[in-house]
Amino acid sequence: MAGFTWIASTAVNPTNLNKMLQTGHFTPGSSTFNGSTGREIAHSLGHTNFTLFWTPTADPEDGLGEVWITKASDKVTIHNSGAATTAFDYVLLDGTDTS
């Protein structure tokens, strides 16, 4: 599947997830959509080798539109083409080695 990184099931366990959280490889948060202007989410990774997982936490009532992100070494911006300003939760997952 294009654009999706598979993670070995042996790598996803409470110990590894806790290690990712402690080392800054796993950053959870909440925000709201802000249309095509986007909503910036700051990070201190220093690179763009990361994945952003997100899910709305309220019904956007068909107003969310398409969703895309733009990456930078110090932030990621999530955009939507619709008018919805729906709240969402996210997880920023650092793509570098956690060992």
Q: Could you characterize the architecture of this molecule?
A:
- It is a single chain.
- It contains 1 helix and 6 strands.
- With 99 residues, the protein is mainly beta.
- The longest helix has 9 residues, at 14-22.
- The protein has a domain at 30-90.
- The chain is globular.
- The strands form 2 sheets. The protein has a 3-stranded antiparallel β-sheet. A 3-stranded antiparallel β-sheet has the order 2-5-4, with no helix packed on it.
Task: Describe the structure in brief.
The protein has 99 residues and is mainly beta. The chain has one helix spanning 14-22, and strands at residues 26-32, 39-42, 50-56, 67-71, 75-80, 87-94.
Q: In total, how many beta strands?
A: 6
Q: Largest sheet, if any? A: 3 strands, antiparallel
String of helices and strands? HEEEEEE
Which runs of at least 5 residues are low in confidence (pLDDT < 50)?
1-9
Rounded mean pLDDT score: 82
Distance between the termini: 26 Å
Going by helix content, strand content and strand pairing, the class is mainly beta
Tally of alpha and pi helices: 1
- Coarse morphology: globular
Radius of gyration: 14 Å
* Binned strand content: 35-45%
Provide the helix percentage. under 10%
Walk across the major sheet and give the strand order.
1-6-3
